[in-house]
Amino acid sequence: MYYICSEQMRYAKMYNMNPFLTKTYKGEEYFFDRVKETEKLLDAIRSERNLTLFSDRRLGKTSLIQHVFSQLDTRKYHPLYIDLFASNSLVQFAQKVTEVVYKSKVIKENLFFKILGRIGASLSFDEHSGMPKIELNFINRQKIIKGLPELFDHLKKSKRQIIIAFDEFQELAGYEEDKAEAYVRTIMQDCPEITFIFSGSKKSLMKEMFASSNRPFFQSTQMMELHEIDKDIYANEIFSVLENCNKSYDKNVIFRILEETYCHTGFSQMVLSRVYSEAGEKIDNEVYEMIWEDILEENKSVSREQEFLLPKLQWKVLIAIAKEEFVKAPLSRVFADKHGLSASSSVARAVKALLDKGLIIESRGLGLRVYNVFVLKNLQKLY
Question: Is CATH 1.10.10.10 the right assignment for the domain spanning 303-382?
Answer without folding.
Answer: yes
